[in-house]
Structure formats: structure tokens, C-alpha cells
Amino acid sequence: MINIYQFILSLFQRETTILVLSKFGIFLGLIFLSLLAGRYTPTFVRIITQRFAPQQVASIYNNLVEPLRNLFRIAGTLILISLSLAWIEDYHSIYNLLSPIVDLSVIISIAWLSSRLFRQFLRSYGIEIVRKFGREVDELLLVFETLANVIIGFIAVLAFAQSQQFNLIGLLTGLGIGGLAVAFAAQKTLEQLLGTIVLYLDRPFVPGEYIRLQKSNQIPEGLFGRVESIGIRSSKIRTAAKSTLFIIPNSILANLEIENITRGKKVMVLLYLDFLHILQEKEQALVQQVIVESTNSLFGIDPGSTSITFLNHQDEQQFTRTRVTFFILGSSENSLQLRKRLLELANEKISKKLFNHGIEFKLQEPTIYVESPVTI
User: One Pfam family, short name please (predicted)?
Assistant: First the structure.
């Protein structure tokens, strides 16, 4: 009787082992399929776009999806891997180990993809939307981009906390009560620490850059110098003239007008337009007027920097080559990218205006950008 019982128990254990191994085998197979299927996420997005917006599918895909193909693949792969975890949900030890890691990876990838998608949308369609409302395009778009990133990050934190069943209300309440007690006890110290946080988030300057501080109650004579370091409580600035070291609390710097000399970038733009015939003086005057009006009206173009040169070529084919040079100004890579996008739209505007006057030309590609930092 005992032998029969042990035999049945061994059969049951063997079947259980086979079942466990089969589930893990299926799980590993699903992981492999996720890695393969995730590579086709951009294609899947294209099919969905074609289903709901068949007329604009090419434009939407090329402007939004194509530049972010790798991010779409990563997000799609991680989502499929997250769904595959359902096969091992009964095995709590392994599931509880993998689930938070996979959930965090999925949320980060989706948040990053959403941030980049919003940025691509602003670059491709935001400018036209702003102009349709009769507003001039400026760096307000970059402010919207920053606010969107903050909102996306906040939603990502909430999503991860919800997936892990954290008690957010209790946590926020505890932090609020504790924060009030600390704030009353160390008001000045917290003010300086908050100033440090503002400087690190806003990044008006980094060590090694030259800045100018305007005259204020705290700095009556103003200050121009090189940033030596940014500390927890204060920043050190070495003056350009006397080479003395100023130590200024970060709480004061966070409330001052700061002129960053090092970041005063300007980029020289070179455009070459080949007209199909020799331009007469009236045509040259018209071309010059259209180009100047189209470029000087752009936000971020250095006023009066536009220079236009007409060169007549009489080789095998007679034509006029026009070289247009001007400067675009910016303080960061994002702002310069925005201005370059505005320039692309200005080129389209120039083409339409000249075509309406019966003047045809070819724009030489690519447009040449030459960085020209502001000298100190």
C-alpha cells in the first residue's frame, strides 16, 4: 500500500515538474517572440495610422515615427515582455522579482517615447498651429516642451507607484508634515538649498562659463567673471579683471538676472540659390526684397545680418547663383533646432513668392550651418 502511495506521489511530482518546465519554456519562447515582434512596432504603428488617417499617413509617419523608430521598438518589446510575465504569475518568488523591473522599464520607455513624440510634434506641426492662431513663433514652444516633460514624468511616477500598490496619499501626507517641521527649524538653510535646486534644474550656467550679474541690492556694482564651481550652499565666481573670488549664496543667484556670455551662440547660415537664367536688375531687386522680408521676420534671426550676393555664370548654361548669408541666434541646442525649422518654412515661403512672380530656382542642398560663438 505504501509503495502504491509513493508511486502515485512520484507521478504527481513528475507531472508538476513537467508542468512547471513547460510554463517556463512557454515563457522563454514568448520572450524570444517579443524580441522579434518588437522590431516591427513602427510598422504596426504605420498600419494603425493608415487605418485612422489614410490621407496623412506618409506625412505623420515620416515626421513623427520614422525619427523615433528605435524608441518605438524598445517600447514595443518591453510591453510584450511585460504581457509575457502572465505565464509565470503563479510562481510568486520569480514573478515578484521580475515584475517591478519590467514595469519600471516599460514606464520609462513609454515616458521617454512620449516626450520625444511631443518634441517631434512641436517641430513638425506646432509652428504651423501657432501661426494659424496669428501668433509669432518664439521660444514659448520650448517652455511648452519642458512643461510637457514635467507632466509626463509626474504621470510616470504615479503609474509606477500604482503598479506597485504604493500608498501615495500616506507617503505625501507624511512628507508634508515632516517637511513643515524641517522648514521652520532651518528656514535659511532650506532657502539656500532650494536655490541650489533651482540652479541645477534651470542650468543658467555651469562651471567654466563666463556670466555677467546685473546690479542689484546684493551686488551693487554688478559682476562679470568665470564660474569656478556650484556648491550645495553657494557658487564661486572669479572676476575677469581682478581675478578675485566671489562666493555668492545660491538663493541670491536664483533671483538675479544672469547674462550667460559663453552661451551667446550664433550660427552663420549659407544658402545657395541657382536661378535658371541670368537675372536682370529688376529681378535681382525683387529676389533681394523677398529674401530679406522672409528672413528678417523670423524669430531668432540677427537683424540686419542678411547679405545677398548675385554671381552670374556663363559656362555651358547661363544662370545666376545667389549666395545668402545671415546669422541665427540661440542659447541652447533646442532653441537653435527650432530656428532651423523656422528657416525651412521660410525657404518654402520664398519659393512660393518667387514662383508667383514667374522666377524659378533650385535650392542647393544641404543648407550650410557654421557655428560662430560670441567672443568674450
Answer: MS_channel_2nd
Gap between the Cα atoms of 34 and 215, Å rounded: 60
Instruction: Write out pLDDT tens, residues 257-307.
Output: 888 877 776 777 788 888 878 888 888 888 888 888 777 766 667 666 778
Query: 4-16, pLDDT tens digit by residue?
Result: 555 444 544 554 5
Model's pTM, two decimal places?
Answer: 0.53
Give the span between the Cα atoms of 93 and 20, in whole angstroms. Answer: 14
Cell of 199: 540652479
- Say how far apart CA 10 and CA 32 lie, in whole Å: 33
Give the closest residue to 298 by CA, choosing from 310, 286, 306.
Answer: 306
In whole angstroms, give the CA distance from residue 231 to residue 249.
9
CA nearest to 123, candidates 69, 71, 67, 54: 67
On the 0-12 / 13-18 / 19+ scale of CB atoms within 10 A, 190 is middle
- 34-57 burial, b at 16+ Cβ within 10 Å, e below that, comes to beeebeebbeebbeebeeeeeeeb
d(CA 246, CA 227): 10
